[in-house]
């Protein structure tokens, strides 16, 4: 049992060094983020050496649409923009607001996007 605990602690420490969170939380380590051309998130993110990296991510890879909201999706099943969402922009904090079929919809980008050593990635 002791080795299981040690392995779990090692895995947690390794994940922290790699900038991997289950939730994403990119906004904790990225600044100046904004949406460009409806679906590209651009930001300046800190890497593990403390350096700053300009990064971009096509949010269609991370976010899909359901009847009520924009939701985090696995990499190949997002594509909210192709499903009719437009005019997307950051409104408050890391929340993205889009005009979609059925009305405005919101995505919590901290749920869907992570900073992986300075590079934006789907969480």
Task: Describe the protein's architecture and organization.
This protein is α+β, with helices and mostly antiparallel strands. It has one domain (26-122): HIV-inactivating Protein, Cyanovirin-n (Roll). Helix content is 16%, strand content 44%. The protein has two helices and ten strands. The chain has helices at 2-17, 109-112, and strands spanning 30-36, 40-46, 52-58, 63-65, 70-72, 86-92, 95-100, 103-108, 113-116, 119-122. The strands form four sheets. A three-stranded antiparallel sheet has the order 1-2-3, with no helix packed on it. A three-stranded antiparallel sheet has the order 6-7-8. It is elongated, with a radius of gyration of 16 Å. The relative contact order is 0.22. The model is unreliable at 1-22 (pLDDT under 50).
Uncertain spans: 1-22
Q: Quote the average pLDDT.
A: 82
CATH topology: HIV-inactivating Protein, Cyanovirin-n
% residues in beta strands? 35-45%
Q: Could you state the order of secondary-structure elements as H and E?
A: HEEEEEEEEHEE
The biggest beta sheet is recorded as: 3 strands, antiparallel
CATH superfamily: Cyanovirin-N
What number of domains?
1
Radius of gyration: 16 Å
| Protein structure class | alpha+beta
How many distinct helices? 2
CATH architecture: Roll
* Number of β-strand runs: 10
**How far do the termini sit from each other?**
30 Å
Going across the major beta sheet, what is the strand order?
1-2-3
Q: Give the proportion of residues in helices.
A: 10-25%
Organism: Coprinellus micaceus (Glistening ink-cap mushroom)
Protein name: Cyanovirin-N domain-containing protein
Domain Cyanovirin-N: 26-120
Keywords: Signal
């Amino acid at each position: 049992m002791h080795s299981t605990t040690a392995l779990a602690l090692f895995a947690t420490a390794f994940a922290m060094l790699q900038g991997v969170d289950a939730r994403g939380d990119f906004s904790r380590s990225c600044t100046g983020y904004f949406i460009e051309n409806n679906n590209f998130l651009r930001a300046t993110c800190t890497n593990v050496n403390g350096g700053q990296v300009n990064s971009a991510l096509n949010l269609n890879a991370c976010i899909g649409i359901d009847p009520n909201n924009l939701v985090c999706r696995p990499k190949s099943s997002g594509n909210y923009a192709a499903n009719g969402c437009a005019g997307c922009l950051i409104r408050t904090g890391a929340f993205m607001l889009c005009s979609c079929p059925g009305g405005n919809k919101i995505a919590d980008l901290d749920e869907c996007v992570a900073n992986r050593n300075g590079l934006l990635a789907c969480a």
